[in-house]
Write a structure and sequence with these properties.
Rossmann fold; binds adenosine-5'-triphosphate; alpha+beta; 5-stranded antiparallel β-sheet; 17 strands; binds magnesium ion; single chain; OB fold (Dihydrolipoamide Acetyltransferase, E2P); ATP-binding
């Protein structure tokens, strides 16, 4: 439905985004993920029409939109910089775009009542001032304001970043539910990898103005396409030469000893995993343990290389610093780039 074809975006001489190519399918929840300053907002701004690319095309539904004015694009926008009007009531905020369209008053009322119901805002809240609502409620107002205009596409730029951790988790679930209910094609920007993994159908991982990898959360996490992606997404172990050498010896594999191998924390186990053809066993010493309630995160020394894993606290066993243990892993889980 949305197609970026070789898009380049410049601020004066500075190339903020280059050779951008991706396609978003109808109804998809597509996330742009990457560190600060990598070009996520810039990409969104070009889709919305706030900025015109210096090269390439942006197609929507087969039509070239690259130069179309903002108001003709039918895109719902939830940007932080596109804040709610703080002195107006919630109702007036949601009604704003509809009034601009000069819809009759009772029609506006009907649309808003219906939308408020869908995003769980009650009548009392509708009559409040925006400034009297919590961050999460304001977020729902912003989404309602965008959705009443029946956009073809919804774009959200870090909509949850101002909220505290707990509310962010709640809003995340709510956002996902809303997107499911409306089935609207959504492009979402975040630098929070957990948010991206839980919400998205697919993720584009950005690095310095370019996309490093596009894939489902599973692909991005378990089959990272580059060193940058695997280090940016989630926690990971870096296996250096002494460990890789042992792994090669035990399995007959040929990991390149001049480069690190990467393995996720949960892929390393203190018990022999069933159904692995040739498990690797590493002699290790516990050097740190960090109790987290459900899990404990351990750090081990293996031949001078620090390796971490997480163990579920099921009440059976816990380990203390200095203890000698064996670590098991499957060489198939090691990524090397
Ligand atoms: N108006 C502007 N004029 C000049 N340079 C800009 C402008 N806006 C952004 N940039 C630069 O373009 C690059 C990409 O910025 P962008 O805002 O797209 O990053 P981002 O990925 O959204 O980052 P963040 O996560 O911090 O919001 C940055 O190097 C930034 O300094
Ligand atoms: Mg940004």
């Amino acid at each position: 439905m949305i197609e970026f074809q070789n898009v380049e975006i410049k601020y004066n001489d500075f190339v903020a985004v280059e050779a951008m190519n991706f396609t978003v399918k109808e109804g998809e929840f597509f996330t742009l993920l990457g560190p600060s300053g990598c070009g996520k907002t810039t990409t969104l701004r070009s889709l919305v029409g706030f900025i015109i690319p210096s090269k390439g095309k942006i197609m929507v539904g087969g039509k070239d939109m690259t130069h179309l004015p903002v108001e003709q694009r039918k895109i719902g926008i939830v940007f932080q910089s596109y804040a709610l009007f703080p002195t107006m009531s919630v109702y007036e905020n949601i009604a704003f775009g509809l009034k601009v369209q000069k819809l009759p008053k009772d029609e506006i009322h009907r649309i808003i009542t219906e939308m408020a119901n869908k995003v769980d805002l009650n009548e009392q809240q509708l009559n409040k001032n925006v400034s009297e609502l919590s961050g999460g409620q304001q977020q729902r107002v912003a989404i309602a304001r965008a959705l009443v205009l029946k956009p073809n596409i919804l774009v959200l730029d870090e909509p949850l970043s101002n909220l505290d951790a707990k509310l962010r988790g709640q809003m995340r679930a709510e956002l996902k539910r809303l997107q499911n209910d409306f089935g609207i094609t959504t492009i979402y920007v975040t630098h929070d990898q957990e948010e991206a993994l839980t919400l998205s159908d697919r993720i584009a991982v950005y690095n310095k103005g370019k996309i490093e990898q596009i894939g489902t959360p599973h692909e991005i996490y378990n089959k990272s396409g580059s060193r940058f992606v695997c280090e940016f997404i989630g926690d990971i172990n870096r296996l250096n030469e002494p460990v890789l050498r042992q792994i090669n010896q035990q399995t007959g594999r040929q990991f390149d000893l001049s480069k690190p191998g990467y393995i996720r924390l949960e892929r390393i186990s203190l018990s022999l995993p069933p159904a692995i053809h040739k498990p690797v066993c590493l002699k290790a010493r516990v050097v740190e343990n960090e109790f987290n309630g459900i899990y404990t995160k351990y750090t081990y020394d293996v031949d001078g290389v620090l390796i971490r894993n997480v163990e579920k606290n099921d009440g059976s066993m816990s380990y203390i610093n200095g203890q000698e243990i064996s670590l098991f892993l499957n060489a198939d889980d090691i990524m090397q780039f």
